[in-house]
């Protein structure tokens, strides 16, 4: 199945570069572009992309507010991949908290960019564990701790969550725990339900802010 992508960045050169990279990949097509966050919802409703690749810093409306707006206004919203220059940008962390599915460095190699799009399209997250750990430092939250306590995770769910915080995909977690991918998918779904999290990225944020890791 072809993955459709909407590019959102205020720099025309960046959009052109991403378009060239993605359209050279089999199974990925760029269906549209936008130069700011204000027009994202309209373009999503018109084009129905599978993935939005969106800059975090833009005029008029940044990637954080654009992420919130899309998730609030669009039924069955697309996956959102934040594009950033610096992995330790506080804007990135806030975008993840707002509901983005991961982030991508602008200096990433073409194969990494394509893999990131495929990964979020499949329902996994794209995280750089060291960067998220650094960004989460000192952001302890009583509400996140309460979520973790109420969740009462099983021993296997604890193991799965710990590997999720390391940025592993379902297939990689399955290999690490010597179980099937469907078993991991079941555990991940259970963790998300217990946390009340939209996706695995949100679950990882709870894990860091609660002090789980």
TrEMBL record:
This is Response regulator transcription factor. It comes from Nocardia speluncae. One of its GO terms (biological process) is phosphorelay signal transduction system. Gene3D superfamilies: 3.40.50.2300. Keywords: DNA-binding, Phosphoprotein, Transcription, Transcription regulation. PROSITE patterns: HTH_LUXR_1, HTH_LUXR_2, RESPONSE_REGULATORY. InterPro entries: CheY-like_superfamily, NreC/VraR/RcsB-like_REC, Sig_transdc_resp-reg_C-effctor, Sig_transdc_resp-reg_receiver, Tscrpt_reg_LuxR_C, WalR-like. Residues 146-211 form the HTH luxR-type domain. SMART domains: HTH_LUXR, REC. SUPFAM superfamilies: C-terminal effector domain of the bipartite response regulators (SSF46894), CheY-like (SSF52172). GO terms for molecular function: DNA binding. PANTHER family: TRANSCRIPTIONAL REGULATORY PROTEIN NARL-RELATED (PTHR43214:SF24), TWO-COMPONENT RESPONSE REGULATOR (PTHR43214). The keyword Transferase does not apply. The modification 4-aspartylphosphate is found at residue 55. Residues 4-121 form the Response regulatory domain. Pfam families: GerE (PF00196), Response_reg (PF00072).
């Amino acid at each position: 199945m072809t993955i459709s992508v909407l590019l959102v960045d205020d720099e025309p050169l960046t959009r052109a570069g991403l378009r060239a990279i993605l359209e050279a990949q089999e199974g990925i097509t760029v269906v549209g572009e936008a130069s700011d966050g204000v027009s994202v919802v309209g373009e999503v409703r018109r084009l129905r992309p599978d993935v939005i690749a969106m800059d975090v810093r833009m005029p008029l409306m940044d990637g954080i507010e654009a992420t919130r707006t899309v998730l609030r206004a669009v039924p069955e919203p697309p996956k959102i991949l934040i594009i950033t220059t610096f992995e330790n940008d506080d804007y990135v962390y806030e975008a993840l908290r707002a509901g983005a599915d991961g982030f991508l460095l602008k200096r990433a190699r073409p194969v990494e960019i394509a893999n990131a799009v495929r990964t979020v399209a499949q329902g996994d997250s794209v995280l750089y564990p060291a960067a998220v750990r650094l960004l989460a430092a000192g952001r302890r939250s009583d509400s996140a701790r309460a979520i973790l306590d109420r969740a009462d995770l099983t021993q296997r769910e604890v193991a799965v969550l710990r590997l999720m915080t390391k940025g592993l995909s379902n297939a990689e977690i399955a290999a690490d725990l010597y179980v099937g991918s469907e078993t991991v998918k079941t555990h991940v779904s259970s963790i998300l339900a217990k946390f009340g999290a939209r996706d695995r990225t949100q679950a990882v944020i709870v894990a860091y802010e609660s002090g789980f890791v």
